[in-house]
């Protein structure tokens, strides 16, 4: 008959469970908020897609919560396979969080995010199907949410709406074309860069807490294995 783990191990297990559970809840909640924020976004520019990232955070949060249950059960009931699965899951989730956090921070700090947004918006602005409903919808979204305009030839057909064709260079010859071209990229970057920076800080902080939990659980597993082995020999 296996004995229970000692009081010190239970204390370490409790700290591990608290750290990992809080990390999972934070990741899950932030992922849901980010998903809601980007659920009806009409345009996605730049190297980081916040909609996809929100799904990743939700999955990570859910798996962290599940891992807590598996890890605690494995430690208390002396189920070595559960302990091993828990350690593997924690390690994988830690690595994924680090990758997301470093990727987001590097994109923000190196200017890659800003350059990619500018390049994507240029490609969007230079599209040949400017009279399509898809182009009109995205251009109107930029105007409504970022107070900027996509500049293009006004002779795109009678269906083009005045709201989308907000700048007509054939009429306003004094307009600064460079300023008009960069307006959407600058406005979009100002908003998205803040979201990406928050994402980087949160994921890296969460990864740090998960690492602490992983180390604590490793100690718990070692102590539990030694304790159960001593009981079986006795």
Automatic annotation (TrEMBL):
First and last residue of the signal peptide: none
Protein name, per record: Tetraspanin
Membrane topology: Multi-pass membrane protein
Subcellular location: Membrane
Pfam families membership: Tetraspanin
Sequence intervals crossing the membrane: 12-36, 42-72, 84-106, 196-220
This protein's UniProt keywords: Membrane, Transmembrane, Transmembrane helix
One GO cellular component term: membrane
Predominant place of localization: membrane
InterPro entries, sorted: Tetraspanin/Peripherin (IPR018499)
